[in-house]
Structure formats: structure tokens, C-alpha cells
Amino acid sequence: MEVYTNNLAKPIHSYRPYWAKRFGTAKMLPMTRAEMDELGWDSCDIILVTGDCYIDHPSFGMALVGRLLEAQGFRVGIIAQPDWQNASAFKALGKPNLYFGITAGNMDSMVNRYTADRKIRSDDAYTPDAAPNKRPDRAVLVYSQRCREAYSQVPLVIGSIEASLRRIAHYDYWSDKVRRSVLVDSKADILIYGNAERALVELSHRIAKGEKVSDIQDVRGTAFLRKNIPEGWSEVESTKLDRPGTIDKAIDPYEMKMGKVDASCATDDAKPKLPEGTKVIEIVHKPKADRAKQVVRLPAYEEVSQDPVLYAHASRVLHLEANPGNARALVQKHGDREVWLNPPPIPLTTKEMDYVYDMPYARKPHPIYKNAKIPAWEMIRFSVNIMRGCFGGCTFCSITEHEGRIIQSRSEESILKEVEEIRDKVEGFTGVISDLGGPTANMYRIACKSEKIEQACRRLSCVYPGICENLNTDHSALIQLYRKARAIKGVKKVLIGSGLRYDLAVKSPEYVKELVQHHVGGYLKIAPEHSEENVLSKMMKPGMGAYDEFKAMFERFSAEVGKKQYLIPYFIAAHPGTTDEDMLNLALWLKKYDFRLDQVQNFTPTPMAMATAMYHSGKNPLRKVTADSEDVPIPKAGNVRKLHKAFIRYHDPANWPMLREALKKMGRADLIGNSKKHLVPAFQPAVIGAVRQSDGSVFKPKVLPKAFNNFKNAARPAFSKPAFSKSKKVH
């Protein structure tokens, strides 16, 4: 989107490097004073604190940001997964000259540490040997406090998805309450939300030149605290933009005043021939407001924390003010302070994306971890990120809120160069690229047909309720990229591991053919999420018609090359808007197509997601939110969430007692029996081997009755697809 950069943003590769660039490039960013000494450093300019272990690869935020700042000339140190019990670990690299950059890591620390049922996880994919408990709850808050204790005068800059999604008052699922902005609780100086490169580069250079961080208040993509609205700004109440109450008739864009005709104001020839006392309309044209100096006031923290309807309203307004082409600043009062959000960052151009990803990454974990297995690294070590952003707008996913709706794509040359680097540099490469993707598999170089329309658009999604007529759905650039990547010498296969937007894919049968015949390793994961239209409408996901169309293409193109390949569908249980009947219908759909899912995703209300606003308020923020607007059924109770999950895993004997009881209450006892037409059998067998129950516990029964085999075989076709194991899912 060159238009944004040319008009509003300085290219991130055009800054004059900081003086410390003379020290050169580090093989790995230092984690110890000994490493600093080897580099000839007496101090760090910037120290990044992260909840992940340090892997020097662009898929890990601290490495990407660290290498970017290094390219700007700054000396950058890494404090990874520090012991947060006291401040000593935060002094390991000494006092930074400019600031601490604090991040929870690639994942929100609460999502990382807890399951959807609020149970603590037994492992952490971003830790050596998947060891648990290497990061605290709400890591940004804890790390900020310890950095303040270590060096009280050093500025704190917070970022990452955890801080980004908590930039205003937000519902916290784990404490079941609305919490204040993370800015207030962390006492940080400034927050960078979304993709941080543009804001971080500008901020770093300005601090390096001597500006106080408290005076830097004009950088897009940042949030900070202030006491008052600055002079020259006009304030707009969000409740006037999107009134959360009785919906009034739309106001005319011209202010109309009624008054009697003043005869003295007209000449004799021009005097109106109207009866005395007649009222006329005087049209007064108001001057057009300067949106660049307009701030939208959201309801205060004290209001949204007490009124779920106002909370849903605030969530809706924030999402409507998310397009960098037309978004205004937002402000929300917290006590006697104002949390001020500047408009979203200008998207990176292709040249800037290449600049970020072409840094001299070591593409491996720091040597301090020796031979430890790091699951997140194992997953992405042979993959390439080709783009950012997502215009899908799925309500349960926060990628759009974090990365934005405008797709930022790398050049073909940069991507192919990285494939060659993996081939030549990454230990253990066998010729298979595990993924060319990003937040989605197939939005590379897809954008609005008109930059002018794009900058004015306020839609929440480009593909819901249908694909926008202004969206260019051409997949030719992606097809060409796939073909060139698989033609690289030494590359045996290029797989696609990112989640596929299949309603978009069917617009390009040639893309589906290329994908299915050359880039699927037997299984392809897609995410219908549900089968029922009323639930899908709360998710902003397409109906099953698009799934059926894609499935037909998938099977036809697989058959053409003589391959037996299968789709792996993902579904969400207990999503807002879901009833027991909806889950039963989904279970029947799964049984009809013989899907026996091993892993099931229970809805987790993450901060700032639209579905989270539904979960908390019981209202639908996809439409104007009012006290008497549509009520959304919310499966909150633990037993209801377990039941909804059990319906998706209808084939698990551990779930049968719960399902039989539920079916009887629902008046569907006809689905209990021992034939193919029944959902669950009338008997409860003991099954050989360990069986995971719906509550997560495991039991080991002893015998397998003949009746169970009869029921199982009657309910399955001739071939058997394996249970689908847990794998990376990106929406």
C-alpha cells in the first residue's frame, strides 16, 4: 500500500543509523555480559524482555524486533524468560541507555498458561523441553514491575499481542471481570500496539536524540496516558456515533433551524408571498470537521466495568475505528487519567517487509539452550512467513485486531531467498518446506481493488457476509510463488500448513488445483468452525455451502492425480450464540461424514475479540448495541461447555453417559441405540487402553465387549481415517 507510506509514513529503512552501528552485527543478540564483552559493548542501548526463550528467527517477535533495531544501529540485548521473583535477573545486562522493551512473547501469557477451561497447562511450547511455569501470569505487568525495581528511571515500552489486546479496558476471562488498560496497571511509559516496526523505529530514534518518552505523543500505533485532551482537538462521544440505547432517527447532515421570515431582510421585489407567521427552513452548512484532530471518547473504565452493554458498545466502536485510512484517535478515562490511543500504524510496504525479513537471522535457538527440544521452534524451523494481516474478521480471533485488515506481503524474491537459506543453513533440513503462509494461507497479495475505497471502508470483514465486490481475489501471484518455490534445487516438497480461507480459495479453481495436487501431505486443515448458520453468523464465518464447494474441488483434484487425501476440519465448541441443539446438529453432521476428531477447540474469550464482547455482555456487537437489542445465548456454565465439547467428540465412550442424559432432556432419545443411525449406544463399554474423559482425566478400562465392536463397525465406512492430532491452527 504505497499510498500510505508516501503520504503519511517515513520508510523504516530510511533513518540515519544510530552511532553504535559501528560495532557491527552480532551472530546472536547477547543474553549475558560475557557476550556483550565479546562484542565490545560496555552497555546495551535497548534491552528486550520476553516470556519466550530466544530463538533468532523472524517468526519470534523478540528476534525480529531485535534484529530490526540492530539494523538501525542500536545495541540490543535479550533477557528471555527471566526469574520474575525478584529484580536481579532484570539487571543481568546492566542498565539500558534508552529503554526496556517488554513483551510477554509470541502468545498471550494467559492463553499460553491456561486451557480454555482455566486449567493450568502442563507444558509450554516456547520453552526448552516444553517446561511449564517459565513465565508468570500477565507477564507484561510482572516484567514491567521488575524492570522498574531494577532501574526506576529507565523508560518502559510495552508491546506484543498481550499488551496490544489490552490497550483499553478489557474483559478478562480468567478473573471474570473487566480490567483496566494494561498501560495503567503496568505503569509503562508508552504502549505499542499491532505490528510494532514502524512505531518502534521512530520512537527509538527520537529517544536516542534526547526526546523524553513522555513528550512523544504523535506516533501512530501507540497508546499512552495523559491528564487532559490537548488544545486544538475536538471530542466526539462514541455514544453519539453508535448510540447504545433507543435508536434515534438518523440526523440530517445539515443542521436545520426553524424561524419566522424576517421581512426587513428582503427587498420589496424579493419579499416572499407567504401567509404571515409561516415557518421556513434555514439551512446552515457546518464546516467539515478535521478528522486528524478529532478524538472519539469511549465510555470510561468505571462505566464499562459496571455495564456490559456499554462494554459491548465500546468494543464495537474500537473495531469500527481500525482502518488506518480513516481511523480517529480514541480516548478512555481511567479515574483521573486518560488512556489515549493514536490511530493504527500505517501498513508496511513490500520493500519494508523485505527489509524486516532479510535481516541476518541465525535461524536457530541461542546456544545457551544446547540440545533442548523447543516445540515452537520444531514447528516453524522449515517454514516461511510470506504475509501479515487478515481481512477475515472472525469474531473469536484477535489477529485482525492485532495485525490489521490490510495484507502486507513480501516480494517473491525475498521469499524464495529465504527458502534457499533454509536449505543451506538450517540443520536437519530434508527438502521439505513445512509452510509458506502466515495468519492465513491464501491472502498473499490480495487487496481492495481501489486504494480510495480501502481507505474509506469501515466494514468489519472483507469476506463476510459475502466476499466484497471490491476485493481482488486473484490468486495468480500465490500460484506462481508455489511453483517457483517447489522448483528450487534441493526442495522436494512445499507444504501449506497455515489455515486456509476456503471461501476465498474457491474463487480460484487453478489455485485449489495447485494446492491439492502439489502442496498437501495427505491431510489439509481447514476451519468451518460450525455447521449451523446462526452460530456461524456470530463468528462471521461462511456457511457450509462454501465448505461443500471446496470439498468437491479438493476430492476432484486429488482423484485426478490418484491421491487419497483428506480434509481435517476444525470446530469450536461453546462459542457465543451456540445452543445445545446447534451442537447436536454439528455432531450429526460429523457422524454423517465420519469425522472423529481427537482434539477439540473450546472457545476461549481473549481480550478485545468481538466474540469476547458477546460472551461478557450477551449482546451482539456486530450490530448497533442497545439495551434491548439481540440477546446472544452464551454457554458459560462448566457443565454446558463440557457437553458442547462432548457433542463434537461423540465417538468417545467417556462422553456417552453425558450425551445420553442430554439427549433424553432434549427429547432426542431416538438417537440412543446400537445401530448406524444412532449417535451414541445404549450401553457403556469398558474399552481397552487409556481413554481421555471429557474432564481431561484418563482411565484405563480392561475389557472390550463384542457389542462395542458391532456398534463401532456399523457406524464407520469401509476405510478408517486416523484420529486427528493437535496441530498449529491459524485463522
Give a written overview of the molecule.
This protein has 731 residues and is an alpha/beta fold. The chain is built from 26 helices and 27 strands. It has a ten-stranded mixed beta sheet, with helices on both faces. The longest helix has 17 residues, at 544-560. The radius of gyration is 28 Å and the shape is globular. The chain starts with a helix and ends in a 17-residue tail after the last helix. Residues 1-6, 245-272, 699-705 and 714-731 have low confidence and may be disordered.
Q: How would you sum up the major sheet?
A: 10 strands, mixed
- Report, as a whole number of angstroms, the end-to-end distance: 23 Å
Number of strands: 27
The stretches of 5 or more residues where confidence is low (pLDDT under 50) are 1-6, 245-272, 699-705, 714-731
Helix content: 25-40%
Number of self-contained structural domains: 3
Task: Please give a quick description of this structure.
With 731 residues, this protein is α/β, with parallel strands linked by helices. Helices cover 31% and strands 14% of the residues. It has three domains: 2-213, Rossmann fold (3-Layer(aba) Sandwich); 228-335, no CATH class; 382-651, tm_1862 like domain (pyruvate-formate lyase- activating enzyme), CATH 3.80.30.20.
